[in-house]
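Troubleshooting entry. Yesterday's outputs looked truncated, so today I'm pasting the complete records for two proteins to confirm everything comes through intact. If either block looks cut off, that's the bug. Protein one:
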Amino acid sequence: MSQTGNLGADIESQINDALSRLASKQMFQSDWDIAAFVIFFTFIGIILLLIILVLIRCCCCCCCDCEGSGPRYQKAAGTKSGVDNLAMEP
């Protein structure tokens, strides 16, 4: 029971600390705060960029049907593809 009360007091003190920073308009009180902010938003930016790239890839392939059209992607039955590795020959 004392753990729960202590946890509640810790959360309340952190909330009060954040609110006091907002009130004083000094969100970043140390270099560590600035570094954490930069790392966090860099991570969020990379995630958003990857999501946008996936959406562009999905939309591009759905709209223009780039795979499967043309002789480059059509394979005849029984034909070999690739390069023979002569070093594997006995």
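Protein two, checking that the full record survives here as well:
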Amino acid sequence: MATSIDPDLAARLRAESEAGKDDPYPEGVTGARPNRQRSKVYSVRLSPQEQDDLRRLAEAKHLPASTLVRSWILERLDAERSA
């Protein structure tokens, strides 16, 4: 299910983003990288159909597929710890 975006709004947002991309951060703002301590990456093999299913589910939830998969893994780990 694709979401329709107003082309004029998209163009205006792109222009605003590009215009300020090199501006310094406002005073008092600091960057954060909350997942920096997560250093291990796992590769998972999925069939093309499984990849399509995952992509569709993630898009429906407005999430990147990797975020959805990670949330599933963490939910299962929590359940296993509680068992």
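Both blocks look complete. Sanity check on protein two: The first helix runs from residue 7 to 19.
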